[in-house]
Amino acid sequence: MGSLLDIRNVTVFRGRTRVFDRFSLQIEEGCSTAVLGPNGAGKSTLMKLVSGELHPVFSPDSHIRVFGRERWNVRELRSRLGVVSHDLQHDYLSCARGMNVVLSGFYSSIDTWRNQVFSETEYRKAEEVMESLGIRSLKNREFGSMSTGEQRRFLLARALVTDPGTLLFDEPTSGLDLKASFLYLEQLGALMRCGKTVLLVTHHVHEIPPGIRRVVMLRNGLVFADGTPEETLTSSLLSALYDYPLHALSLSGSFQVFPASGRPEGENAW
Ligand SMILES: Nc1ncnc2c1ncn2[C@@H]1O[C@H](COP(=O)(O)OP(=O)(O)OP(=O)(O)O)[C@@H](O)[C@H]1O
């Protein structure tokens, strides 16, 4: 297994905000990793850097290498790295039919277009992926008329249709109810067990499913802690990361946090 991500000395601005200042992070292929941090930590910026939607300030000693390469054509990259992002769900055309959402993964486009040609094999693959995610019966439905959970599964199908070895998720269960969240996280677990590498960014501890081997805690554009879930998802590190007293619990490889019993100092009693 080689390098999935190699970020060295990268400086990134969004508007006037310097989100990363000579930031470095390496992730190996095969090591499913969660990037966890509070609002504004830089998680979405990191995800956009990896997916090629954002670029750092040029510096001779900095680089971003995905699978060992600095330059990718988007279509080629998507055949190795599938992306299921929040923005994508938001941007997707509500009139696109389910089948077209999945097929659009072959071109990394939003919806399919007249000039795009799909082979029988590609149609078959799309059917197969929809079947495996339990959404085949919705293939003719408009994206806009699907529930958030169904939309999320179609976007996962879109990412999986090219059979990438690595999948990138941005807050995978946001907007999903409890059952849909757990089913979706089980799906992520199944993908990891089938050999896919999952890279996810989240601000929720419960979104880190069993099978994630490494947690990178991010705060103010810096790596705050880095280790296995057992090493990092502790009450003391989580309390420090979120600057709030928290109590962490784990059960069968899943994690959950609660407010610690003591109120934060200075908070008014009700
Ligand atoms: N378009 C923008 N213009 C200016 N500043 C921005 C822009 N987008 C993000 N930022 C700033 O960059 C910093 C990092 O934002 P980013 O969205 O990467 O954080 P995040 O960890 O993903 O947060 P969240 O969990 O709330 O999504 C924040 O301080 C944010 O205010």
UniProtKB/TrEMBL annotation:
InterPro entries for this protein: AAA+_ATPase, ABC_transporter-like_ATP-bd, Metal_Ion_Import_ABC, P-loop_NTPase
Origin superkingdom: Bacteria
Gene Ontology molecular-function annotations: ATP binding; ATP hydrolysis activity
Gene3D superfamilies, alphabetized: P-loop containing nucleotide triphosphate hydrolases
Residue ranges annotated for the ABC transporter domain, each copy included: 5-245
Assigned keywords, A-Z: ATP-binding, Nucleotide-binding, Transport
PANTHER family: METAL TRANSPORT SYSTEM ATP-BINDING PROTEIN TM_0124-RELATED (PTHR42734:SF17)
Family, similarity comment: Belongs to the ABC transporter superfamily.
Name of this protein: Molybdenum ABC transporter ATP-binding protein
Source species of the chain: Chlorobium limicola
